Amino acid sequence: MGTSSCSTGFLLGICAAITLAAGAATASAAEKAHKPYAVWVVGEGEKNGHPVTVRWRDTMPDVDYKAAHPWCVEITWRFGHDAKGNVSREETERAADLDTMLDQEIENPEAATEVAGFSDNEHRVWIYYANDRYKIEAALDTIKRDEASLPISYETHEDKDWQGLQLVLGTVKE
User: Fold this and answer.
1) Reported pTM
2) Which of 56, 87, 90, 124 could, after both became Cys, cross-link 116 (CB 3.0–4.6 A)?
3) How far apart are CA 29 and CA 18, in angstroms?
4) Is residue 121 part of a domain?
């Protein structure tokens, strides 16, 4: 089940990761010319000796799009670790499969748009903005029910001004 509380701890964590990763951030000019809001910026860094990958949308959408998608949905996969404290290849591949599943089940410009995410040694996080939190929560509950072994949780909260993405964009220093 999702919650309606704001996850400021996650946002602070992603901003710390972005600060580490901002030096490697890139986006091609060809991507920017194709779809203004479809551009992803990817940064890589290190945290506690483990790699961190951060990705985020390079700009805010227009006011009408933000108003139509006021719900922030944060989906978290908590990684399991082997005896040495490493994430197994199988675990990483399962998280990548979930990424594909989320893209197929949730990502839709009319319903929800992924705006940021990051992966470190502890977890992988996806952040979406949605027009109807209950539809997204129902889709996530179905995924969790169909794949009961997935170590995922989610939170939803209202964020009409997209402060979550604004915090990410404000933290990035190129």
Assistant:
1) 0.80
2) 56
3) 21
4) yes
